[in-house]
Specification:
The complex is a heterodimer of chains A (257) and B (288). Chain A has 257 residues and is of the alpha/beta class. Chain A is 34% helix and 26% strand. In chain A, helix 7 crosses helix 9. In chain B, helix 5 crosses helix 13 and helix 6 packs antiparallel against helix 11. The N terminus and C terminus of chain B are likely disordered. Bound molecules: adenosine-5'-diphosphate (ADP) and magnesium ion.
């Protein structure tokens, strides 16, 4: 019964990379659950294997050990089921902004007209109206990241995997887009897994935060974030915000550095 | 938050205007019209000096030709249509050879992306074929294909296909792996990845070889005509030089130059049409 609430179960996942200098264990015995309509942030020291974990979930990298279950079914990865926004924006330089946004939809053979309208809506919300026909090379880093985020959202996948989606943005734009993201996933009832190096962002947006240890990474702790609102500005002014913030900083051993 | 939003909209209204960048990059020689005039003056001065040199300066008109004679021949061969026939033959041979050679080479080169195993297997053969000076195949090709235009086309294909193949293969192999991974995460199969990521990202390199290959194709056609032919600019140049008719040789050479120039610009035009996103990029680099 309780399986139903668990959208994705990750159990005992492990990955070791073979390099010239020897084998590097990156992920070891990783176990956590993602609930339906969850918003989970993954934080951990840089280089601890967060992106590697996403690549395994996305089915781009085979795990050495462990299992993944999607709504109870064992799966190798969620290829085709997820919207994966990678750490680099990875826009296709020969496609215009609009064509880039429609890329995921082309893979799914959805109705073109409907897809176009949806993408145009998002472009307006993200402050990119007027840039539909521009090529990515003419955009700023922040604009490119927004296009990549639209491309991921517009696909309407069951689970969004977002790898440091706001890292290239200035603080104001970041707050704005965090709000847009939270609104979008709440209205559509989507599940989000967010990698961030920003503890502040993790607390503000997430329902739960998974803290990873250093390499080889394991789950160090999982914290429920119980704030009245997850809108990026209101949550930051919540009386409990700083308590969670300090808790997570402690988990990351930030005060000792 | 509203501040951000209004900022963004302000930027949006301004919009990207890549054209304007060009005007910023002056070259100190004034506009295109002045430059064109200057170039014309150089050409006219060259021919006038040549003509005067032959008439009064002791330059041998027999060995070097003479502009007045060249222009007279030029006019005559235009009037009787011979120049059009010869240019037509050479152009047709070069273009057909270029198109077939480039398409075949590019298609094979790109499709080697599908299988690393096959690519590794054929690599030494391709390199071996590439190290043969293709022009050395000319006598053999004329034996096989006869003295008509088909042997010239075959030679132009030989000149272009391997270059196109190698370029296309390397470009496909170097296509951004992360873009391919992204498509895979979206559920794309290998064909989708090929057509949506590998082919478009190889296009700039592939089209860059067009410009080189159109020249190679012309070399193939002309050398084929040198060896054995009834028509074409190569035939014209070859027979005229056997008769020490230097003025007609120059007519042939200048016609080849004009033909090569025209083909080059056609290829450039195609490139701009096929790669509009590259144009945006290069104009930005000019401004930077
Ligand atoms: N394909 C690979 N081959 C070898 N080592 C890798 C590979 N991918 C990642 N690594 C190593 O694994 C570690 C974790 O990388 P990554 O998952 O990108 O970390 P994070 O995203 O947490 O910063 C790094 O030390 C990185 O060098
Ligand atoms: Mg990473």
């Amino acid at each position: 019964m309780s399986d139903k609430a668990r959208q994705l179960q990750i159990t005992g996942l492990a990955k070791t990379f073979a390099t010239k200098t020897g084998s590097v264990p990156v992920v070891r015995d990783l176990t956590f659950d993602i609930h339906e309509q969850d918003f989970v942030s993954i934080i951990g020291p840089s280089g601890c294997g967060k992106t590697t974990i996403f690549n395994m979930i996305a089915g781009l990298l085979d795990a050495d050990a462990g299992t993944m279950r999607y709504r109870g079914e064992p799966v190798d990865g969620l290829r085709g089921r997820i919207g994966y926004m990678m750490q680099k924006d990875l826009l296709f330089p020969w496609r215009t902004v609009l064509q880039n946004c429609l890329l995921g939809l082309e893979m799914r053979n959805v109705d073109r007209r409907e897809a176009r309208e949806k993408a145009l809506d998002y472009l307006e919300t993200f402050g990119l109206k007027g840039f539909e026909n521009a090529y990515p090379s003419t955009l700023s880093g922040g604009q490119r990241q927004r296009v990549a985020l639209i491309r991921t959202l517009v696909m309407d996948p069951d689970i969004l995997l977002l790898d440091e989606p706001f890292s290239a943005l200035d603080y104001q734009t970041r707050l704005h887009l965090e709000g847009v993201l939270v609104d979008a996933v709440e209205t559509a009832g989507k599940t989000v897994i967010l990698i961030t190096h920003d503890v502040d962002e993790a607390v503000a947006l997430s329902k739960r935060v998974v803290v990873l240890s250093g390499r080889p990474s394991k789950v160090k702790a999982i914290h429920d974030i119980d704030l009245a609102s997850h809108s990026p500005i209101e949550s930051r002014s919540d009386p409990n915000f700083s308590r969670y913030f300090h808790l997570l900083c402690n988990e990351l051993d930030i005060q000792t550095q | 938050m509203s501040v951000t939003a209004s900022n963004e909209r302000g930027v949006a209204k301004a919009g990207p205007k890549p054209r304007a960048y060009f005007q910023l990059s002056g070259d100190g020689l004034g506009g295109g019209l002045t430059r064109g005039l200057l170039q014309l003056v150089v050409v006219v001065a060259f021919f006038v000096a040549w003509e005067l040199g032959v008439r009064f300066g002791g330059i041998s008109g027999f060995l070097f030709g003479q502009p007045s004679g060249i222009f007279a021949n030029f006019g005559r061969m235009i009037m009787n249509g011979q120049l059009f026939v010869d240019t037509g033959y050479t152009a047709l041979e070069a273009i057909t050879g270029f198109v077939l050679g480039t398409i075949a080479g590019t298609a094979i080169g790109l499709s080697l992306w599908y299988s690393v195993g096959v690519a590794k297997l054929v690599e030494p053969f391709v390199i071996a074929m590439n190290s043969v000076p293709k022009i050395a195949l000319a006598p053999l090709i004329i034996l096989w294909f006869g003295t008509g235009y088909s042997s010239k086309i075959a030679l132009a294909i030989a000149m272009t296909a391997i270059v196109a193949l190698i370029t296309a293969y390397q470009a496909a192999r170097d296509a951004d792996k992360d873009l391919q991974r992204l498509l895979r995460s979206m559920g794309a199969d290998k064909h989708r990845i090929f057509f949506k990521a590998v082919v478009p990202s190889s296009l700039p390199a592939v089209i860059a070889t067009f410009r080189i290959n159109i020249g190679f194709a012309l070399v193939g056609a002309v050398v084929g005509e040198f060896i054995s032919s009834q028509h074409g600019l190569g035939h014209l140049v070859f027979t005229a030089s056997n008769l020490y008719d230097l003025n007609t040789v120059w007519v042939g050479l200048f016609s080849l130059m004009i033909l090569g120039f025209a083909l080059y610009h056609i290829v450039n035009f195609i490139e701009r049409r096929v790669l509009p996103w590259k144009q945006d990029l290069s104009t930005r680099q000019v401004a930077a």
